[in-house]
């Protein structure tokens, strides 16, 4: 629970005190204005009448997480700031500069406070941002929660993790270790994309590959990164007690967890973890920094897709610590022959209507070739939206890309395929997976090819129909006569497979 201490309560303080109280946690205001104390108490805000510049006034106060020095006078605030910093060296302090500050005053404030609020340039909303932003509060809460874990922590990325999930898991392990908690970065499935493998190998990342039948009893707690629900795009039990969730995707259902940070405005979960590392004051290891920067670059398509100011800021924090030579090697691995063949089949087999191209690449051994093929189709002249899909065992995997502003691929794929499988993702990149329940019972290759042909037609038609009729679930003869081919698998979310 976050404890905020307010020393002095002038005009700016009164503008924000109500919102501070509504944020929850503990709050205490100490001011020598008795009328303000009475008013605050009438409003059920804890307040104490005392001189905020007197060390005795805070001698018996519990150590606060955040301090706001907030009288109207510069000299009073400076004195209170000096007392607060000496008494609570670990607290995050925001100090209001006051209305008659000199350049010398500003220098003294900046030397002692974490945030200085200048009345000439900041209003009440800036005070809230400096003292009680979600990132500051959640960092405090995360630290408190992690230190309470008695045992080993499993930090689980989504299935077949992408760079953002891998880097986020590694970073959260670093944070857990820093507060004295042993942790493992874990994942289910495979890391088959050549760039992802290069990232893991070149950085020598310590990851544990879990299997569905592995015992989880050695772990006392579980954290999910880059996805938010157990059993949804991971192979954890759906009823698993989740302790920590950190993600940037919009949730598709209730999100369990004792500590949850869903930062949908961030372009990557790696951005959120970078912020936590910075808030914890940790010296970011070059390996972790390189992984995080690569995770941000991949998820934002090198800062061109769903990027936010926070992503640029995180990159600026990471760049001085990045191993540039390793990063270059990660970004330029050689393409495998199978991936090149998949791309070639996508180009050859594409069905194009206006600026939309759909392609089946048939049987695949590496599902990570699909997003690369979708990207290659998108690079072709006149194409703004692509869908590429392939067959592996009794599953069909789909990957979609778009640069058309009017298209939301995540919603489009959910409209088209959630009734017969599972789908999700972002507006400009998304994925789906469908289980073909009848494929395994086919007697011969000719029958298999016949089924595959029908499935290809269903997928193609559903995708075009969903693009034309969103919002709403598509209907038509082909959806009603062919759904028996599929066995619904549950509400999975899109992850690296997109």
From TrEMBL:
SUPFAM superfamilies named among the record's database cross-references: DHH phosphoesterases, NAD(P)-binding Rossmann-fold domains
GO terms of biological process kind: potassium ion transport
MF terms in GO: nucleic acid binding
DHHA1 domain: residues covered: 355-460
Top-level division of the source organism's lineage: Archaea
All copies of domain RCK N-terminal, residue ranges: 5-96
Chain ranges of the DDH domain: 154-296
Membrane-spanning segments: none
Gene3D superfamilies, A to Z: inorganic pyrophosphatase (n-terminal core) (3.90.1640.10), NAD(P)-binding Rossmann-like Domain (3.40.50.720)
Name of the protein this chain belongs to: NanoRNase/pAp phosphatase, hydrolyzes c-di-AMP and oligoRNAs
Organism: Natrinema salaciae
